[in-house]
Design the sequence.
């Protein structure tokens, strides 16, 4: 299915933000925005949230329990060995191993979660709406498939009023994101 | 740590030791210890599992000389065991500090952490190596090797095992004859070779064994006792009867 | 919040965003000068010599080194600890300053992290090589095996060390790589060369800079930063347990973990400074790495140097105060006086005294002063590790075990090899990876530049 997008290009962060605000005031749904660096106002305006911290917390919790259980199993149940007169369950020296392996697990699992959720995989080509977004431009993308021409024109005017340097329509066959 | 069956121990009477080095050579022959040659000895890479330390007192013109044979102390709280990452050295249920050559990857951490420095490292391949043509490089030379003891590979740590091959042999024999081990039945190579009878090996758990008797002697002390390594080797301190020798 | 009058702008010269992209990418887009090829050639020669030394070590045995029955660890462990210390710069810089929201980190953290990754790789070489049977190194992995299964000794500081370094390498690499995603995308979208576009598109993983990407990117940075902050403290603490858990006089101290961590950050920051002085000079990036940046690092260094001085004094004091004769001997007869005085006093002078020059603004503002002091700090840190590892082992409890230790050219060769690998790695980094986090520099480009700040 062919999809039509209206793409607005901005030079400055402030104009870009005010443009988002005025589009939202008129209840236009913004498809996504693209910026060269993270802009925190955007996260608030578009209500973007990340549940990665919660996920990471649970990865850590499972890792701690798992590692301690593993250490107890290997050194007390499976093959107890005496080292230097220490008890089999030498808990204080297990703490170090637990901390490090927990950190290790959280890192790998969070990276995997990030990669899967954001669809960032080596060699993947996500759709680039405007390639200048990674250099110096702020880009607002609005899906205009279901909007009639007058609405679409209204978006262009709004963006121009707020200081867009360029506004254009572009069709995409498939969207990867 | 409790030892239910045996707890092997070694007592060395410094009064009796004359410093003749027979124990060193007996150990070398028994345990297939490589001869490494003058150059390596100079670089402090001697391989002997037992060595004799000398201490002197009084004036240099008329010194008193003390000999102290030092071997692995088989500490019950062994510092070396804690630090081996691959558990190549650990404690047996009979109080032996055992060394598993097959498992050793040669980090040398145990060597560093031994306060007595009795652990030895195979710095080169000493067997079948023409650079170390002393006893194990030729077919004829290899005939001196003891078939009961492993020949160690390059890169592993080795040390005194309390002649574990002899312990196992006698235990097996006693088992086959359906009897308990007799005291003094097991003789380590150093004990066997000592002309003065200064080295006694035995079971510390047996109150009546000879080694237990010596351990109750008030002269008994352990090397670097203050480190609390709890060695299984005990020394009887040397006593000089100065009054008698003066008269 | 940010006081412009005191600290000056973070990025000088009121730059536009595309100017920033262009200037930071210029070392990658223009051909490197002759100096680059000369330096790379020298580094490669050192690396080749290192490979030769490694070949001799592995094929003939550890006997080719100067270590012996009493000093089981020599230069290899000294160098290992030294490299790991240098490898603390990246995490200390990026993560502590990220968590403290010190935004001046943005133009330095990429290079510091690159240095970390390369230094930790150099460091990891040594524990592998010092093994007598390196081909059996996999025994250290706790994996189910057919030998029982026989697990590893979880009480051993060397095992802790192994997992700590593996985790550290992985996390610092991920953190570094994560930061590079937006920059790879910038290169992908700017470049005109097809090959370059394909390569950076592959490694850029399809980054578009959408709000979804950015929010997850930020939260992942904070997660990785938070847990890696624990690592900064734990890795060198664990390295210090290699000694602190040991029984040797001069090793067995509870002071070691904090002392090692501070020392690591000290050497790491010093190495960052060395590198930054060179980068500024060569690539003319003084607008991004301003005098104020160097000033800030110098101030941190003088503070840490005071902590180091305190630690050295404490060690000696406790040796005397404990009344332990072995400790007293190690410190007073084997370090302060004795065979290893050169290393001991070298350590004191380079680490505790010379950095005090940074109290003077003139020294902090002169590139010769910064370069000289930072190099001397790294030399001093090497002496410190030598002091700890070798002097304690060379004369410990029983006098019959006392030996001296001298390295052979094979050991020195391995060290030269890692220096070469490190230099070559840094040079490749300059050439193929943006040396600053472009997106982060853009986000702070206007701080302190506007009138109302």
Sequence:
């Amino acid at each position: 299915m062919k999809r039509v997008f209206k793409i607005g290009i901005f030079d400055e962060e402030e104009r870009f933000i005010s443009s988002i605000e005025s589009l939202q005031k008129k209840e236009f749904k913004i498809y996504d925005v693209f910026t060269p660096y993270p802009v925190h106002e955007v996260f608030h305006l578009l209500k973007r949230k990340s549940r990665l911290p919660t996920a990471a917390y649970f990865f850590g919790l499972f890792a701690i329990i798992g590692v301690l259980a593993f250490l107890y199993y290997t050194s007390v149940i499976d093959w107890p060995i005496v080292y230097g007169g220490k008890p089999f369950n030498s808990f204080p020296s297990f703490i170090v191993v637990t901390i490090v392996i927990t950190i290790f697990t959280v890192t790998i699992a969070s990276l995997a979660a990030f990669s899967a959720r954001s669809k960032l995989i080596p060699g993947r080509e996500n759709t680039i709406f405007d390639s200048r977004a990674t250099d110096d431009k702020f880009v607002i993308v609005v899906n205009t498939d279901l909007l009639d021409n007058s609405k679409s024109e209204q978006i262009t005017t709004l963006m121009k009023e707020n200081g867009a340097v360029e506004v254009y329509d572009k069709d995409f066959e498939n969207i990867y994101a | 740590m409790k030892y239910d069956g045996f707890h092997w121990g070694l007592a060395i009477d410094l009064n009796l030791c004359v410093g003749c080095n027979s124990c060193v050579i007996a150990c070398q022959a028994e345990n297939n210890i490589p001869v490494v040659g003058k150059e390596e000895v100079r670089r402090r890479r001697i391989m002997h599992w037992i060595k004799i330390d000398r201490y002197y007192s009084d004036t240099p013109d008329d010194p008193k000389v003390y000999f102290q044979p030092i071997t692995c102390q088989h500490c019950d709280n062994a510092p070396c065991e804690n630090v081996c990452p691959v558990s190549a050295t650990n404690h047996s249920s009979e109080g032996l500090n055992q060394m598993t050559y097959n498992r050793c990857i040669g980090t040398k951490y145990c060597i560093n952490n031994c306060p007595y420095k009795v652990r030895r490292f195979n710095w080169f391949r000493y067997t079948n190596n023409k650079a170390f043509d002393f006893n194990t490089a030729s077919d004829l030379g290899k005939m001196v090797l003891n078939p009961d003891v492993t020949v160690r590979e390059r890169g592993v740590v080795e040390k005194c095992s309390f002649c574990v091959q002899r312990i196992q042999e006698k235990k097996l024999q006693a088992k086959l004859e359906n009897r308990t081990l007799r005291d003094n039945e097991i003789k380590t190579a150093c004990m066997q070779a000592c002309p003065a009878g200064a080295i006694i090996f035995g079971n510390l758990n047996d109150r009546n064994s000879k080694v237990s008797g010596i351990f109750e002697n008030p002269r008994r002390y352990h090397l670097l006792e203050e480190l609390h390594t709890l060695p299984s080797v005990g020394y009887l301190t040397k006593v000089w009867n100065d009054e008698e020798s003066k008269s | 919040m940010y006081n412009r009058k005191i600290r000056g702008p973070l990025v000088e010269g009121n730059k536009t965003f595309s100017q920033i992209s262009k200037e930071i990418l210029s070392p990658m887009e223009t051909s490197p000068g002759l100096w680059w090829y000369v330096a790379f050639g020298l580094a490669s020669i050192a690396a080749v010599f290192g490979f030769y030394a490694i070949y001799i070590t592995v094929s003939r045995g550890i006997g080719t080194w100067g270590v012996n029955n009493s000093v089981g660890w020599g230069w290899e462990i000294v160098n290992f600890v030294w490299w790991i210390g240098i490898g603390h710069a990246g995490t200390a810089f990026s993560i502590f300053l990220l968590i403290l929201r010190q935004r001046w980190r943005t133009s330095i953290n990429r290079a510091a992290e690159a240095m970390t990754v390369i230094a930790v790789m150099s460091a990891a070489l040594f524990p592998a090589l010092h093994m007598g049977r390196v081909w059996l190194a996999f025994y250290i992995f706790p994996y189910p095996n057919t030998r029982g299964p026989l697990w590893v000794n979880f009480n051993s500081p060397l095992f802790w060390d192994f997992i700590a370094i593996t985790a550290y390498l992985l996390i610092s690499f991920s953190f570094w790589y994560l930061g590079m995603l937006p920059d790879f995308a910038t290169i992908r979208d700017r470049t005109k060369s097809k090959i370059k576009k394909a390569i950076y598109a592959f490694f850029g993983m399809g980054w578009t800079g959408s709000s979804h990407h950015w929010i997850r990117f930020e939260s992942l940075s904070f997660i990785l930063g938070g847990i890696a902050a624990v690592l900064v403290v734990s890795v060198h603490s664990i390295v210090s347990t290699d000694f602190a858990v040991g029984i040797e006089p001069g090793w067995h101290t509870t002071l070691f973990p904090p002392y090692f961590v501070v020392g690591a950050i000290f050497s790491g920051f010093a190495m960052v400074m060395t590198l930054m002085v060179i980068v500024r000079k060569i690539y003319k990036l003084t607008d991004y790495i301003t005098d104020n940046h160097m000033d800030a690092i110098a101030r941190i260094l003088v503070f840490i140097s005071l902590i180091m001085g305190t630690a050295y004094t404490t060690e000696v004091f406790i040796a005397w105060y404990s009344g332990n004769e072995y400790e007293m001997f190690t410190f007073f007869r084997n370090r302060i006086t004795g065979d290893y005085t050169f290393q001991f006093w070298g350590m004191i002078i380079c680490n505790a005294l010379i950095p005090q020059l940074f109290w003077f603004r003139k020294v902090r503002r002169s590139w010769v002063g910064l370069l000289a002091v930072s190099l001397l700090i790294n030399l001093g840190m090497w002496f410190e590790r030598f002091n700890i590892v070798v002097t304690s082992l060379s004369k410990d409890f029983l006098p019959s075990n006392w030996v001296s230790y001298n390295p052979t050219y094979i050991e020195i060769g391995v060290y030269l090899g890692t220096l070469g690998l490190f230099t070559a790695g840094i040079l490749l980094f300059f050439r193929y990876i943006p040396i600053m986090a472009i997106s982060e520099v853009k986000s702070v480009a206007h701080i302190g530049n506007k009138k109302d700040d």
Summary: The CA atoms of residues 360 and 435 of chain C lie 30 Å apart. Chain C touches chain A through 64 residues (CB under 8 Å).
